[in-house]
Amino acid sequence: MTTESLIKVCHLSEIPSNDMRCVSLADRKVLVANTSDGVFVADEMCTHEDARLCDGNLSGTKVKCPLHGSRFDLITGQVLDDPANIDLVVYPVTLVDDDIYISIENS
Ligand code: FES
Fold first, then answer.
1. Which of 31, 63, 70 to mutate to test the pocket of ligand 1 (most atoms within 8 A of CB)?
2. What is the pTM (predicted TM-score) of this model?
3. Which of 1, 7, 79, 107 is 20 to 30 Å from the Cα of 60, by its Cα?
4. Pick among 1.10.10.10, 3.20.20.80, 2.102.10.10, 2.30.110.10: CATH of 3-106
């Protein structure tokens, strides 16, 4: 049986509008993007090689890897361009008083 935990990531005020930051949590590193379509949280590392996606570019809800240019959709995690071919892990986000929480499955 799996259960879910809510993990606090940061406060919304720490992420400027239409920008993103990498945040280190206890057991993982995540990318937080504050877009006009909402707040999105994903794993910070590109699925292709070792590149932090927060060092790339954010355009709407798409993030572009700084190393080889693959883009990922932060809503679904879907990879949109080569050379990456593995989707990004994205997390369900909950906002409570502008604190950003993600849901993590515990197995
Ligand atoms: S490391 Fe991101 S596309 Fe290669």
1. 70
2. 0.95
3. 7
4. 2.102.10.10
